[in-house]
Each structure stands twice: as structure tokens, then as C-alpha cells.
Specification:
Elements (H helix, E strand, L loop, with lengths): L7 E2 L5 E6 L5 H8 L4 E6 L5 H27 L7 H19 L6 H17 L15 H14 L2 H8 L5 H26 L31 H12 L3 H17 L10 H10 L6 H21 L28 H12 L8 H17 L3 H5 L6 E4 L2 E6 L12 E4 L2 H6 L1 H8 L25 H17 L11 H12 L4 H8 L15 H8 L8
Length: about 525
């Protein structure tokens, strides 16, 4: 343990003390608590001496406990706690566990099920002579099984990791025994909350005081590390598969950098330090556009959900000059001609029917609708039909990921009809046009490792074909997305009104008045006649 320091009176009369951080844990203390050389204690001179001494002892015990924990983590040895400290720690756990669920406690039945799981743990290996709920009567086999359930149901590993604590064997046994009793109480409280009873929790008064959470004093823990925050955000927001895949590495890195700490303990200075660490081998554009955008988005969600009081990553950016523009984002004529010509060539004999169909039709569909490539590769035959004398494509979120998750209908250009697109759809039927539904994989149970939908795979294969076989290799142009820019530029040059261009692409311009001027399908079909044919 660390020796206790003394309480003194400063020149102005305030109560004052300093506690030096031992050299062997200074770097670890700096990373965990933001201070390297010493901690300081101060109270107003008007504070009664008895109260000042009591608060000082709590403060000194907190700092000493932190130092002991950091030393234990460095040496790999668990720390021993007194009976009072175990009571305090179990109280910390109780408050932490309840806080995870109290806002949205679910149903009473759910907490009954949790309680039954805990009871069944002791009953599974119990005999007639050893079937007592009193923990002291458990056999070693039953005790181990009950402890395993307490660890799982109480998320003990996560709690101790967030506290930065590693307990020795004897303390672990005593702590799990204490938590087992508190776990039953927590289940009962949350069952009452789920049943609409939000009266004050009287159980909190039984715990000893004296230790702080791993966060700085006064910080309310969120109960989530960086990875858990990302997982929770994904489960609630259900973002696109591509976004999850791109941001996974961001939060794996952040969780490792911050050593699994609670997100509420991360300071603004630490956020900047993490940003600086990302510059090794990454461009400023990637750090700003992917890495920092990801953490800012998730921490904004944490703030909105009252998990953190501020977004420490807000405003953090890498200073970088504006990326030099080398070209427009639309295809030049040589590029779109090459792609459309290649789409008309006979496909390789072993190419699957769906892949051949994607090469043949998706570029033309994007060229004449301004749709995203993924909006077309997810297309079903049932989404192509005639309405009010106009043949149309219905772009629906039900088929996959749609721009802004917005439903829209776009008329089919006469050139596509002349090429036989309607006959192709009739031949395929109502199912997916450009991927095999039998190849769809089962959904992943882990939302942070989503299975790529088949239409996304089809889109990626199409991009590979444009790059590798057609030869559109300029890295400053997107092999699929550039069709949107190409459509809008050509449409503008042809005199198509702005509101029609936006309607085709599923864009919104933010003008409330334009909502009253949404083009009808017939209006769009008439306006589409202005769009010139692609001549190869």
C-alpha cells in the first residue's frame, strides 16, 4: 500500500494536501487520470475540521487505491482488499449495473428469467444434502458454477476492466460472494422499475464509502468502453453494412489505445493525443473523413443518450490543406463509352447469369436514372412495372440500402426499353435481377461483423470489372458512383429543371417550398425526354 499523507492549512487558511505519484506508476497514472507527478486536495477554510479530515481520508484512500491497482496491473498480481473495501466495490458494481438498465428496464418477465438462471446455477450440481441457497453451504463444485454465472450475468469482467482493477484470488472469491447477493437485489430492483416502480432505492445506504470509480472524481461512468459504445450504436442505429465494416477498425483501435476505459473518462487532451497517433501512415483526409468522423458520430449519440456530458472528439481535426482537385467527378466521354460498349459485349462463357446481367444492364440503368449502383444491383423484377401509362422503376428501402432510405419512382428512358430491358425483366420474373438469392448468407449474430448482402457483392464485382477489364483506372473517379454525377451534369446541360434532377437522384435541396412542387411521375417522364441518348 501507499503511505498516507498529511492534511495541512495553506496560507489562505484552506485545508490543503499533496500526494506524490510514485515514479514506477507515473506514466500509467498519467494515462488513466491525466496527472503525472502529484494529486492535490483542497477544501475551503470554512470546512469544519472533522469533515475536512473525513473527506481528506477518503481522498487519500482513493489515490492510494489507484496506485495499488496500477502496480498490480503492471506486475500482473492481483490486489487484496479489506472487508470494507469489498463492500465499497460491490456498491460501485451495484450502481454501475443498475445504471446500464434503469432508463429502459424492459419487462418484469425478463428479470425473472435472469433470476432463474442464477438459481439454476446452484441447483445444477447440488445434491439433496447440499441444496441450500446459503452461499456458505455451497460445495466447491457448486460454488465455482455459481461464480461463473455471477461473472456472466453481472458482467464482472467488464466492470473490473473499466475500473482498471485486478483482484487476488481470495479477494475475488469474497467480491463474487458479495456481488451474488447484490445481483439478486439488482434483479429485484430492475423488475420493479420494469413494472413502473421508480421509488428511491433504499439499498444504496448499506454500502461502505471510500473508493472512487476509475474515472476522475465527480465523473459519472457510462458503463461502456469504446468498442461497447460502437456495438450499442450499431444495434440501435443499424447503419449500412459498409459503414460498420469501415468503422470497425476505428473502434478496435480506440479501445486498445484507451485500454478499455469507460468512455466517460476520456479527456479532451487524450482525444487529441489519439488523433495524433493516427497520423502514422494515414493521410489527413482519411483521419478526418473516416476515423474522426466515426468517433464524433458515436460520441454524439452517447451524449444524446446521456452517457457522456460532452463529446471530447468534437472539433478535433488534422490540419490539412485542401485536397487538390485533379478532375471532375463525372465520367469523361471516353470512360462512359468504354463502360457502355463493354456492357454490350458477349459475356465470358463461365460467367454466372446474374453477374452477366449486372454487367449488361446496371451501367445503363445508372446512366439513365442517376441512381446509385447499389440501388440498381438490389433491384427486383417486381419493382419494374407500368403505372398511369409510364414504365417505371420503383426504388425501395425494402430491397436494400437506398439513398436517404427514401422511396421513389423513376420513369424508364425509352432507350432502355428499346434495348430490351422490359423483356429481360419479364424473363427473370419478380425476384432479384442481378444476384442469386440462394447465395444470401445467414445474418451474423454480431451486428459489428455484418454479412455483406448479395447486392453489395454484386456491386463490388461490377466495380472490379470496370477497373480491371474495362480499364477505367483513374483513382480520382468512382467506377460506380460517377454515374450519378454524369447523369446530373448531362441532365443540366440538356435543360432538365433542377427539381427533376433532384427527384431522379433522390436528393433534397432543403427548400421547404420545393416539397409542394414534387414532380409527378408523368412530369418526370416528360422531362426525361430532354435527356439525350448515349451514343457509342
Amino acid at each position: 500500500m501507499v503511505a498516507m499523507t498529511s492534511l495541512k492549512k495553506a496560507k489562505g487558511g484552506d485545508w490543503f494536501s499533496r500526494k506524490a505519484i510514485p515514479e514506477d506508476v507515473r506514466e500509467a497514472y498519467l494515462k488513466a487520470y491525466g496527472l503525472r507527478r502529484e494529486e492535490r486536495f483542497r477544501l475551503p477554510a470554512s470546512t469544519p475540521s472533522a469533515k475536512a479530515m473525513a473527506e481528506f481520508r477518503d481522498w487519500d484512500a482513493t489515490i492510494s487505491s489507484r496506485i495499488d491497482q496500477l502496480r498490480a496491473a503492471r506486475t500482473g498480481n492481483g490486489i487484496a482488499l479489506t472487508q470494507r473495501q469489498i463492500s465499497t466495490l460491490s456498491g460501485d458494481w451495484y450502481r454501475w449495473f443498475v445504471a446500464q438498465h434503469e432508463e429502459e428496464p424492459g419487462t418484469p418477465e425478463a428479470w425473472d428469467i435472469q433470476y432463474e438462471r442464477l438459481l439454476s446455477a446452484q441447483e445444477k450440481f447440488a445434491t439433496d444434502d447440499n441444496n441450500d441457497e446459503e452461499e456458505d453451504n455451497f460445495s466447491p463444485v457448486v460454488r465455482r458454477h455459481v461464480e461463473a454465472q455471477v461473472i456472466e450475468l453481472g458482467r464482472i469482467a467488464t466492470f473490473l476492466a473499466e475500473k482498471g482493477m485486478r483482484l487476488d484470488e481470495e479477494t475475488t472469491t469474497a467480491f463474487l460472494g458479495a456481488v451474488r447477493e447484490e445481483l439478486v437485489a439488482a434483479f429485484a430492483l430492475l423488475r420493479r422499475r420494469a413494472d413502473g416502480d421508480f421509488s428511491p432505492d433504499q439499498r444504496l445506504a448499506r454500502f461502505a464509502s471510500g473508493t472512487e470509480p476509475a474515472a476522475a472524481k465527480g465523473v459519472k461512468l457510462a458503463g461502456l468502453d469504446c468498442w461497447q459504445a460502437f456495438d450499442a450504436w450499431v444495434r440501435e442505429r443499424q447503419p449500412a453494412v459498409a459503414t460498420v465494416g469501415r468503422w470497425r477498425s476505428v473502434f478496435l483501435n480506440a479501445n486498445e489505445h484507451f485500454e478499455g476505459r469507460d468512455v466517460a473518462t476520456i479527456t479532451p487532451d487524450e482525444a487529441v493525443a489519439w488523433k495524433d497517433s493516427l497520423l502514422n501512415g494515414r493521410s489527413a483526409q482519411v483521419v478526418n473523413g473516416v476515423w474522426l468522423r466515426a468517433v464524433v458520430t458515436v460520441f454524439n449519440w452517447l451524449k444524446a443518450n446521456k452517457k457522456v456530458t460532452e463529446n471530447v472528439f468534437a472539433g478535433v481535426k488534422v490540419a490539412a490543406g485542401k485536397k487538390r482537385k485533379t478532375r471532375e467527378r463525372e465520367f469523361i466521354p471516353d470512360e462512359w463509352k468504354a463502360i457502355l460498349k463493354a456492357s454490350l459485349a458477349p459475356p465470358p462463357p463461365r460467367l454466372k447469369r446474374q453477374k452477366a446481367a449486372a454487367r449488361r444492364w446496371v451501367p445503363w440503368l445508372c446512366a439513365y436514372t442517376g441512381a446509385r449502383g447499389g440501388e440498381m444491383t438490389q433491384l427486383h423484377g417486381s419493382s419494374v412495372y407500368e403505372e398511369d401509362g409510364v414504365w417505371l422503376i420503383e426504388i425501395s428501402p425494402e430491397d436494400g440500402t437506398v439513398k436517404g432510405a427514401s422511396f421513389r419512382k423513376v420513369p424508364i428512358h425509352e432507350h432502355l426499353i428499346e434495348q430490351g430491358f422490359l423483356e429481360f425483366v419479364k424473363q427473370i420474373g419478380k425476384g432479384p435481377l442481378f444476384y442469386d438469392p440462394d447465395e444470401k448468407k445467414a445474418a451474423s449474430p454480431d451486428p459489428t461483423k455484418p454479412v455483406r448482402p448479395p447486392y453489395v457483392i454484386a456491386l463490388n464485382k461490377l466495380a472490379e470489372w470496370v477497373r480491371q477489364d474495362v480499364g477505367v483506372t483513374d483513382p480520382d473517379i468512382s467506377p460506380n458512383h460517377a454515374w450519378r454525377h454524369t447523369f446530373k451534369r448531362i441532365a443540366a446541360r440538356a435543360g432538365m429543371e433542377r427539381r427533376f434532377r433532384f427527384a431522379f437522384c433522390g436528393h433534397e435541396d432543403g427548400d421547404v417550398g420545393d416539397q409542394y412542387e414534387t414532380p409527378t411521375l408523368r412530369d418526370m417522364a416528360e422531362e426525361l425526354k430532354k435527356f439525350p441518348r448515349y451514343k457509342l
